[in-house]
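Justification of computing resources. Each target in the renewal requires a structure prediction run like the one illustrated here; the chain below, 188 residues long, is used simply to show the kind of job we budget for.
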Amino acid sequence: MPFQGYEFVRWSDGRTENPRTIVAVKQFELTAIFHYVRTEEFWLEERRCSIQGNGTELHYGDEIEVTVTPDNGFHFVGWSDDMANTNPTRRFVMTENFDWDIYPVCESNETYTLEVYADPEEGGTVTVSPLKEEYHMDERVDLVATPAEGWRFAGWHSRYWSDSGRETSVDIYRDMTIEARFVEIEGD
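Resulting structure tokens:
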């Protein structure tokens, strides 16, 4: 019987049946050969969902099928490494080089608006990427403020968020209005 973490491979005479019955008519030496079985606990990051199959102990080479169940108010949209794959059930093979950064992408069923403008308007321009009519919760939006000649950027401001970097990102979590504040440069 192997110790935990080991499994029987073969007998020293090359035979593999186990258990094995031996009738000894003379003295001989026979050794059971075991090898260490490396296992990993399969666990993908759960972001606004649960994953059936997480926590399963696997040997290298084992295959597992997982199924994603979105949390209430969310829906499954794809996998972080393959957004075209919209099937919430997926098979993985456990390998030594398994990509543990893969996770299911679940988005909120609710959407929010984002309004971004320059204040004052003649102080500069703003770029929003991606520019859309509606955003899902936690969707990241990149903002860039470009001052007009004779103006400098003074910061981003909203009721719920602010930042001083001319290039920044904001994660959407509600309807938001953000202004890029510009200040006129005083001449000498």
